[in-house]
Specification:
about 15% strand, alpha/beta
Length: about 210
């Protein structure tokens, strides 16, 4: 079951659709908030909010695809499920390219929607866990001196102290000292553990 921080945001200008989805999601044990427009949604949600967004593709003020792009610009990483009463292949391609996890045409099976929402929430949880882990690793990484960061990168690649010394044009004992400090500051005991942390940093966008 999703935790209390995971909320399903329904954005649809049709009140009947919003009400029906809200009831169905509530019965499924999924916290839900509904909005009649993209503007209302953007004004109420911040980047720390977890869960997913279910967005109608056709709304009078701002359509679903435009809202999806604006979410990206606002740093809102919520997974998006697009719903529409007007099936459109080009729109579906655009939505998927922008990261939508699904594209459902009305009338859709509500149980299928629930399943997709649960998958989206789990995807969001994994992404947020990784982001938190990377943030913690980056904080430790930033405590390293520039030379220690170089040594960490080479150790993570599996190079020996001798090879690192040659690559950096320093003594082997100096490498050993740097290596010991790197392990201590990064909170690990071995090169494989250090390599895992470096991999997480690279996944998080810090090479």
């Amino acid at each position: 079951m999703p935790d209390e921080q995971s909320t399903v945001f329904v954005i649809d200008d049709d009140a009947a659709v919003r009400d029906a989805l809200s009831v169905h999601l509530d019965l499924a044990g999924l916290p839900v908030r509904s909005f009649a427009s993209a503007r209302e949604f953007l004004a109420a949600v911040d980047s720390d909010q977890g869960g997913c967004a279910v967005i109608d593709i056709r709304m009078p003020d701002q359509d679903g695809l435009s809202l999806q792009q604006e979410m990206i610009r606002h740093g809102l990483t919520l997974p998006v499920i697009i719903i529409t009463g007007h099936g459109d292949v080009d729109a579906a391609v655009t939505a998927f390219r922008a990261g939508a996890v699904d594209f459902l045409q009305k009338p859709f099976d509500e149980d299928v929607l629930i399943e997709r929402i649960r998958e989206a929430i789990e995807r969001d949880r994994r992404a947020r866990r990784l982001s938190l882990e990377v943030s913690e690793i980056r904080s430790r990484f930033n405590l390293l001196s520039p030379r220690e960061q170089e040594v960490m990168g080479l150790v993570a690649q599996g190079h020996s102290n001798k090879v690192i010394a040659i690559r950096l044009d320093i003594g082997v004992r100096t490498v050993e000292t740097h290596r010991a400090k790197v392990l201590e500051k990064m909170g690990v005991r071995s090169a494989p553990e250090l390599a895992r942390l470096k991999m997480r940093l690279d996944e998080g966008g810090l090479s």
